[in-house]
Amino acid sequence: MIITKIVYTKDNKSFTIFTSEDLEFTVHEDTFVKFNLYKSKEIDKNEIDDIIFENEKYNSINLSLKFLRNRKTEKEVRDYLKKSEIEKDIINYTIEYLKNLKYLNDYEYAVAFSNDKLKINKYGDLKIKNLLLFKGIDEDIVNEVISKLPQDMLYTNLRYACSKKIYSLRNSKNTYEKTVRHLIGKGYDYGQIKKIMRELL
């Protein structure tokens, strides 16, 4: 078959290709140039399949890069592409492509995420760990990152949160129980909570 007509769409920089056998397909201009497509060019079904597959890879990478404007985990990118109805093989290709370009790194994500939650949200290590696991990060990576959290900062945060909660409940009943529940909810270890509670009450 031959290419009988080519229509360019400026808005999304794409070309729609029409063939002599009434097959038509649309590709981005990068794919168009890569395969040297032009009117009257001879082309077969296998070539069209290759072109479409290459174009899907291009679309998948572009979708991912837009999604990665804010740092994401590998699982989050996979889930996003799956919801966008990208084929599994293309998703796998895209993930490796992003890793090679250092756009996707679960270890670096886990370090940055845990530091933010520790310093800004004042979360305990247990809650940070659960949040990282929920985001699909490998458990070995999570355990390594959690083990490297500064213990002095965890202790300082816990003591501050404990003092603040006790003060806010100074006129309430069951101060001890309410404070413990609050601190467990923030992800602190029960043994550490009891130790500091004994110091403060």
Automatic annotation (TrEMBL):
GO terms for biological process: regulation of DNA repair. This is Regulatory protein RecX. It comes from Anaerosphaera aminiphila DSM 21120. One of its GO terms (cellular component) is cytoplasm. The keyword Cytoplasm applies. Belongs to the RecX family. It is found in: Cytoplasm. Keywords: Cytoplasm.
